[in-house]
Design a protein that fits this description.
Number of helices of chain A: 12
Number of strands of chain A: 22
Strand content of chain C: 35-45%
Number of strands of chain C: 10
Oligomer: heterotrimer
Structural class of chain C: mainly beta
Largest sheet of chain A: 12 strands, mixed
CATH architecture of chain C: 3-layer Sandwich
Chains: A alpha/beta, B alpha/beta, C mainly beta
Number of helices of chain C: 0
Helix content of chain C: under 10%
Strand order of the largest sheet of chain C: 2-3-4-8
Largest sheet of chain C: 4 strands, antiparallel
CATH topology of chain C: Rieske Iron-sulfur Protein
Radius of gyration of chain A: 22 Å
Order of helices and strands of chain C: EEEEEEEEEE
Radius of gyration of chain C: 13 Å
CATH superfamily of chain C: Rieske [2Fe-2S] iron-sulphur domain
Shape of chain A: globular
Largest interface: A-B, 47 and 43 residues
Distance between the termini of chain C: 34 Å
Distance between the termini of chain A: 13 Å
Structural class of chain A: alpha/beta
Number of domains of chain C: 1
């Protein structure tokens, strides 16, 4: 006889196991150089025909990367071998203008991800699919272009809008912000550049798919989003990656400026393979009356360290982070949020949900800071963790710093485990054990899942259900 | 190959030692020192030959013995000042309650220093199935760096109250460790009112299953005061519980409070129940409150775990509600502050000590918190 | 009335670098830039790190730990993560050649408290 706890363990064991573990012939990647030095950085910049100031910035990034210490907190990053990473891989020489122009192997990859389907159904406003280090597929609907919305890969953005880049690149996350932001500045390639003009509401989410497809290849995409006054945009980023035997590094930088009265939502669903170190710096500035929302789902990787941040710099600015993390065997999701209140009457809200199983570890790490002068600010933080077995680990590390008196803030965390009573109750209503487990997990993450675009919510639910089905037998 | 040192796996003290040299002199960048005014605490980091020692009146359950005669314990300092103090102290204050002994009246220990700077060591040990209340009063107006080691025997029940008061220029640095045996219960309260720099490190460990720890704190910070309470609860035994409630009221320019609540639930600590709460009430402009509850769970087999932290301004809504009922603002404010501390005060063992603590809190806030109902009526009528 | 106190020899502060000095018990960074000499509190408003250990770039000093740069003329942060200004001080040089001495007025120059972002 198996106990409920054992069945639970078996059922949940499947969850979080990586589904997209296939990869295409690795033609572009094998030629790329490993390791980082000044020549590599100069080479990247030269290949892209960049202006001198960008090269200088890259070299500064390289210098600071060498100087800056590794984080003394968070996850164990010992497995990263910086000398064995390919910092730049070019998969196609020229960007494709349409789907038919894509090389067959790349098309095959995306077919399995369902991109053409999404494109056919016009579910997305424009697709920037990052295959290795360059954006290879890029299309924007005509009506968006007419509205003046710019949605490019970052390399093209720099070429066509150099003045904008000079002003904003590194203005939210400086080169020396942290070791990995410095590394990204040195070797960045690809990513998205979005500009939404004043008053323009982009009605459909802008989507980008990112893929790592080369062993030991670092992806260092760089995203810059500027939402002008009273405008609105929802940007969606999704990640899957093939399983490889040695570790990969993904270290992106995302900078967002939300101008007066504007609103930006940035949704990420990441499902990296279990060998990827995912170390990402994401920060937005929200000006007066602006709203910034991060919806952040972390489902794969070996280690994720990611704390999307909002610096609330204008009066009545709002920040919100909804975060969901799932850690399976051998995985550590160290995720959370940062909110810095730097102006009066600002408000922030953080909701974090995490599920750990099979010895995985989830950590919520947060920062809420209310600076002098940020009168009448409000912040609430709610963290819930669900443990589905006895060997998994969950930590909650909030950090709260208040320097004003007329503020209100609260942090609350609970850790619970799936109880046999819950399972028994659902099973007595006719559900099988795996259905019951799936229902509990789905119910737990529902407050965040319902904020996802429909296709992502379906994908997430399917993932949970699929894994539950396979577990009994 | 790039080889890096991994960050620590949890928040348990990184160095545990009786040897001062095992602890580097803090620079202020260390996680556990990042709030404290380390420059001003420099003189506690190395042995001071002129340091005095902490003593008290003896009698009943209380004795003072040369440090060499103090019984051995398995507690060790977790920071440099406590290692310096443990190595440098010349006497020990011992509070002893024997097995099965029931002591109804609180045992009051008024700690005194013999010099401007003092080292101290206090050992409170209660035998199995005994019950007692011990009150430690720190208001001698001298600087102290010391440690309090508490052993609670099997099935025993110990309630302690530590009052940090006295003139606003004193420095109080204390480590306070409680080791809780099988099925024992311990209530450790701290009321911090006085002192300029106060850094208290209450910690709890369990010597057997079934232990229960309740840590309570009330603190008041006024202009220029730095008050830090840094808690570490180490669950390594099954079926134990911990419950932490700390509340602070802050006012005045540059007053700064720090509350850290670290709870570590180790793999063996199945079936535990833990909750921590910190609430800070900001009474006017200027104060800073840092509040960090950290929870680390290495097993999923728990009863429940959670924490909460809230910092807010004086509740205008409550004030409005009371004023709408005809209660003058001054009285209304007193009622709100009294209400804020009510659950902590309710846990103070005797009415006499409850009144004393309330009186001192009121004195510090310039409020008469002991005001009776008829006083309120009188003021309303006038 | 302002009162200038001796900080260090001018020769001790190499061009495009900074030096930490203690003035009336207060750590201050003396910064030698192409645009002249400046004095700023030696404490980043973001994470209490010594600014003197950072890089001098034009008329700004950049905190080495998290990359915030501060305008030495106003003390204002030029980018996050820092949001608050750092106090700045009046500075002057007395004497010539190797004997030139840097003096600082330890009363901070009042500036707006926040960067413009």
């Amino acid at each position: 006889m198996t106990t409920a706890a054992q069945d639970t363990a078996a059922t949940i064991d499947e969850l979080g196991r990586y589904e997209y573990g296939w990869h295409d012939a690795d033609a572009a990647g094998t030629n790329a150089r490993r390791g980082i030095n000044e020549d590599v950085v100069r080479d990247i910049s030269a290949k892209k025909n960049e202006p001198e100031w960008m090269l200088d910035l890259r070299l500064k990034g390289l210098r600071l990367f060498g100087k800056k210490p590794m984080p003394t907190w968070g996850s164990n990053l010992n497995g990263i071998d910086f000398d064995n990473i390919k910092y730049f891989v070019r998969s196609t020489e020229k960007q494709a203008q349409s789907w038919e122009d894509l090389p067959d192997d790349i098309k095959a990859t995306y077919d399995r991800l369902g991109i053409p389907e999404a494109e056919k159904q016009r579910l997305v406003a424009g697709v920037a699919a990052q295959y290795e280090s360059e954006v290879v597929y890029h299309k924007i609907r005509e009506d968006l272009e007419e509205q003046g919305v710019i949605f490019k890969d970052t390399d093209t953005g720099l070429r066509e809008h150099e003045d904008v880049f000079r002003e904003y690149f590194g203005s939210v996350i400086p080169v020396g912000d942290n070791k990995f932001a410095a590394l990204n500045t040195a070797v960045w390639s690809g990513g998205s550049f979005i500009y939404v003009p004043k008053g323009v509401h982009v009605e459909i989410p802008l989507q980008a798919y990112f893929r790592i497809n080369t062993e030991n290849m670092g992806q260092f995409e760089r995203t810059l989003i500027i939402v002008d006054e009273d405008a609105y945009v929802h940007y969606v980023e999704g990640c899957t990656a093939p399983i490889y035997s040695s570790d990969s590094l993904h270290s992106a930088v995302v900078e967002i400026i939300v101008r007066k009265g504007a609103r930006c939502r940035y949704t990420t669903i990441q499902n990296w393979s279990n060998n990827v170190y995912n170390l990402v710096t994401k920060r937005a500035i929200a000006q007066a009356g602006a709203t910034m929302e991060w919806v952040d789902g972390n489902l794969g990787s070996k280690v994720t360290m990611k704390y999307p941040a909002v610096w609330l710099t204008g009066e009545y600015a709002k920040g919100e982070t909804l975060s969901i993390a799932f850690a399976g065997e051998g995985q550590h999701q160290d995720a959370g949020a940062k909110m810095v209140h730097a102006a009066p009457n600002t408000s922030s809200n953080i909701i974090s949900k995490s599920v750990a199983r099979g010895g995985g570890r989830t950590s919520y790490r947060g920062l809420v800071q209310i600076l002098e002068g940020a009168h009448n600010s409000k912040s609430t933080v709610k963290c819930d963790a669900l443990l589905v077995d006895d060997i998994s680990r969950s930590d909650t590390y909030p950090y709260v710093d208040v320097r004003e008196d007329d503020v209100s803030m609260g942090h609350e965390a609970t850790v619970s485990k799936i109880s046999e009573e819950q399972l028994f109750y659902l099973m007595s209503r006719g559900l099988t054990e795996d259905e019951a487990m799936a229902m509990i997990v789905r119910g737990f993450i529902e407050p965040i899942a319902r904020e996802l675009p429909m296709e992502y919510a379906i994908e997430l639910n399917r993932l949970i259900e699929m894994q539950m089905e396979g577990a009994v037998g | 190959m790039t080889v890096l040192d991994a960050p620590p796996l949890d928040h348990s003290p990184q160095v545990v030692s009786a040897d001062v040299d095992d602890f580097a002199v803090p620079t202020g960048r260390e996680e556990e020192w990042r709030f404290a005014p380390t420059e001003e605490l420099r003189r506690f980091m190395d042995h001071d030959p002129d340091a005095g020692t902490i003593t008290c009146a003896t009698g009943g359950h209380v004795t003072v013995v040369p440090i060499v005669d103090a019984p051995a314990t398995d507690w060790l300092p977790t920071d440099r000042p406590s290692a310096v103090s443990r190595a440098g102290t010349s006497s020990a204050v011992l509070v002893r309650i024997g097995d099965d002994e029931i002591v109804e009246e609180p045992i009051v220990v008024e700690l005194r220093g013999s010099a401007a700077l003092n080292y101290g060591y206090v050992d409170v040990t209660i035998g199995r199935h005994a019950r007692a209340t011990v009150v430690l009063v720190h208001d001698a107006g001298v600087d102290v760096s010391g440690s309090i080691v508490t052993h609670v025997g099997d099935g025993a029940n110990l309630t302690m109250l530590s009052i940090i008061d006295g003139p606003p220029q004193a420095v109080h640095l204390w480590q306070w460790h409680a080791r809780i045996s099988r099925d024992a219960s311990f209530v450790g309260s701290v009321v911090t009112i006085g002192g300029r720099i106060v850094r208290i490190l209450p910690s709890v460990s369990y010597a057997g299953p079934g232990g229960s720890a309740e840590l309570l704190g009330a603190f008041l910070a006024d202009a220029g005061q730095y008050l830090e309470h840094r808690i570490f609860i180490d669950h390594d035994q099954p079926h134990c519980s911990s419950n932490v409630i700390y509340k602070g009221a802050l006012s005045g320019a540059d007053s700064h409070t720090v509350w850290i609540g670290d709870v570590l639930v180790r793999r063996a600590a199945v079936g535990i129940d833990t909750y921590e709460m910190n609430r800070n009430l900001l009474l006017d402009d200027g104060p800073r409150a840092d509040s960090v509850p950290n929870l680390e769970l290495e097993t999923g087999d728990i009863v429940s775990a959670g924490h909460a932290s809230a910092t807010g301004k004086f509740d205008d809504e409550q004030l409005f509600y009371l004023q709408a009922r005809g209660i003058p603002e001054r009285i209304a404010r007193q009622l709100v502050v009294r209400g804020f501390f009510a659950d902590i005060l309710a846990r103070i063992p005797s009415a006499e000590w409850r009144a004393l603590v309330l009186g001192r809190i009121g004195q510090r806030l310039g409020m008469d918190l002991d005001a009776h109902e008829d006083d309120v009526d009188a003021e309303v009528a006038s | 009335m302002s009162e200038f106190l001796e900080a260090c020899l001018l020769a001790d502060v190499a061009p495009r670098s900074a030096k930490r000095v203690l003035i009336a018990g207060r750590p201050i960074a003396v910064v030698n830039t192409d645009e002249g000499l400046f004095a700023i509190d030696d404490r980043c408003s973001h994470a209490d790190v010594s600014l003197a250990e950072g890089e001098v770039d034009g008329c700004a000093i950049e905190c080495w730990l998290h990359g915030s740069a501060f305008d030495l003329r106003t003390g204002a942060p030029l980018s996050p993560p820092a949001m608050m200004s750092v106090p700045i001080y009046a500075v002057r040089v007395v004497g010539d050649g190797d004997a030139a001495v840097v003096q600082i007025d330890p009363t901070p120059i009042s500036t707006p408290n926040r960067g413009t972002q």
